[in-house]
Amino acid sequence: MKKTILFLAVVMTFSAAIAQKGKVTTATTLLEQGDAEKAKDAIDAAVASEKSNTWPKTFIVAAKVYTQLAQDGKVDDGVVKAYEFYLKAIELDKKGDEKGKKIGKYKKEIGQALLFFSSQLTNAGVEAFNEEDFKTAVAAFDGLLLLNTNEYLVAVQGEKLDTAIMFNTALAAYNGKDWENAEKYFNKSIDVKYGGGDAIILMHQMYAEQGDSAKMGPNLTRGFETYPEDDRILTQLINYYLETKQNDKALDYLNKAVESDATNPSFYYARGVLNDNSGNFDAALADYSKCLEVDSEYFNAYYNMGVMYFNRGVEEMNDANKETDFKKFDAKKAIAEATFKKSLPHFENGLKIKPEDVGTLESLKTLYYRFEMNDKYNEVNEKLKNL
């Protein structure tokens, strides 16, 4: 009697397992008939059951059901779930059955399913990106990149490095402020030289937003070495060194910049600022003049030249005021007045480009008052009142 009971127990267990695996067959049939929602009920039950959730086929079918549900707009994260189901199917297939046999039985079937699924994963990522659901986009693109290296898919399609998806993963992560993945995939994109200097520039902006100044310099230096012809990177690198007061390095890169592109006024202007800040008056003046030679509408060059002469005039006037000898005072004052006058044309030229610039108007107001140029003084004073 005891043996009979045990035998019956085995039969009942076996029957339960068959019943649960039958739900996988049912789900497959319903999916083929176009009823993905009913197929979901069947496959969800199979996934939840211990009798069938160790069978790779359960998760292959679950992945297909959820992919279809996503296409039908019935499940928002259906494709992401399908991806997870495929990974589970691979995991189980590598283990084999409970006796460690039948390892890799479903490898070909999973690989072929993944070949079709990869396009669905791509579409899901693109759609999520366009809808600004960047978290889902990253998950989809990241999943696709991982699948492309998976032996099950590689066995069917061969090795594949999708550089465009790699860059798009970084871009989605960047837009979603997922800095860890953005950095990871921008770096991968730079390694394979995909995306040009955009990856470098976006990483620089990312580090700036995070306030991570320690990574800015190395990133920009790497960018300049990788893309030496990209003026945007060189400009950012120069600005970085200027902002961090590393004047020697800034000057070095500025000289390289001028050598590589002698028609870029921004390089002369930046070098002029550097020389100006370092107290190299004549060198700064020469760079600002060269900048205007290349671009006669470069407002900041005019303004800075005006400021340079104005500030030097102030210094010379302060020096004159120290004199107790009237003749020496008059001589030094005359020199200061001449320097102040040299600033006038630069401010006036700048005003032609930006007629409502307050800094320029205020400077001209002071100078016109100084030289008793009353008509012009009244004119700029009126402009300032109306701003």
Strand and helix layout:
Layout: H1 2-32, H2 36-48, H3 56-71, H4 78-95, H5 107-130, H6 134-147, H7 151-157, H8 163-175, H9 179-191, H10 198-210, H11 213-226, H12 231-243, H13 247-260, H14 265-277, H15 281-294, H16 299-320, H17 326-353, H18 358-370, H19 374-386
Helix pairs in contact: 1-2, 1-3, 2-3, 3-4, 3-5, 4-5, 5-6, 5-7, 6-8, 8-9, 9-10, 10-11, 11-12, 12-13, 12-14, 13-14, 14-15, 14-16, 15-16, 16-17, 17-18, 18-19
What does the model show?
With 387 residues, the chain is mainly α. The chain has helices at 2-32, 36-48, 56-71, 78-95, 107-130, 134-147, 151-157, 163-175, 179-191, 198-210, 213-226, 231-243, 247-260, 265-277, 281-294, 299-320, 326-353, 358-370, 374-386. The longest helix is centred in the first third of the chain and has 31 residues, at 2-32.
Count of discrete domains: 3
Shape: elongated
In angstroms, what is the radius of gyration?
36 Å
CATH class of the largest domain: Mainly Alpha
Q: Distance N terminus to C terminus?
A: 106 Å
The CATH topology of the largest domain turns out to be Serine Threonine Protein Phosphatase 5, Tetratricopeptide repeat
Strand content: under 5%
CATH-defined architecture of the largest domain: Alpha Horseshoe
Count of runs of 4 or more consecutive helical residues: 19
Helix content: over 70%
Calculate the mean pLDDT score and round it: 88
User: Which sheet architecture does the biggest sheet show?
Assistant: none
List low-confidence stretches: 1-19
Classification by helices and strands: mainly alpha
Give the beta-strand count. 0
Q: What string gives the helices and strands in order?
A: HHHHHHHHHHHHHHHHHHH
